[in-house]
Amino acid sequence: MVDTDIQTQMLTEFAELARTLGNVHRLILLEHIAQGERAVERLAELSALSIANTSQHLQHLKRAGFVETRREGKHIFYRLGSGPVLNLLTALRHYVEHNRSEIRALVTDSVNQPDRLELISREELLSRMKEDSVTLLDVRPEEEFVLGHLPGAINIPFEELEHRLSELPDDQEIVAYCRGPYCVFSFDAVAMLNTKGLSARRLKNGFLDWKATGQIVETAKQG
Which residues are catalytic? Predict the structure, then answer.
């Protein structure tokens, strides 16, 4: 009876946490916060929500422990909670991939036609980084790069890439990455670089997966 009571209590807590996450706006906010600490005002702008609505969703996430806050003057900044929140987001993403046939087809395509998606795994990238035989290209906006990026990465936002190709080496393989495995910037960056005669591949999973697995993340001063 005691074991049953404990199990019921645990599952009730699971259900409450799942209910908190059962809102697309909260998941969007978590995805933005996962990139790095941000103020409420910026989160509202990124999520296309009012500040009041954003604050309300953030309070739900805070009560559940998914986010934490700090105050700086009149501004409140949000960061991920101390628990394995990134791992949870990654697990949810993997489950969606498992259930969506079109995403499963995309993953299958990357296995059967590697020359089409130009993938490199995290494990292979780590090995190449130790050899210093690869150039990392972060094609996210500068704001996200500043909050955190792969060690030694060069930041050239995708919309600037075509005009800044001279900043990239032509004698070393380039690995482009973005937010996550389906961020179109990295797909388009690899396609452009290959068209320009540069050797390029795409990191199989993006920055959030790298961060979730406990790999080293660097930050930088903006400008």
Answer: 178
73, 2, 80: which is closest to 37 by C-alpha?
Answer: 80
The sign of the torsion formed by the CA atoms of 62, 73, 36, 128 equals negative
pLDDT score for 115: 45
Taking the whole predicted model, whether its pTM rises above 0.85 is answered as no
Mean pLDDT, rounded, for 43-52: 94
176 burial (CB, 10 Å; 0-12 / 13-18 / 19+) is buried
- 16, 123, 197 from 161: Cα distances, Å: 44, 26, 14
Contact 30, 86 (CB under 8 A): no
Inter-residue contact 58 to 29 (CB < 8 Å): yes
Helix axes 24-35, 51-63, angle to 10 degrees: 80
Q: What is the largest CA-CA distance in the chain?
A: 69
pLDDT in tens, 95-138: 877 776 555 565 555 444 444 457 899 999 999 999 999 999 99
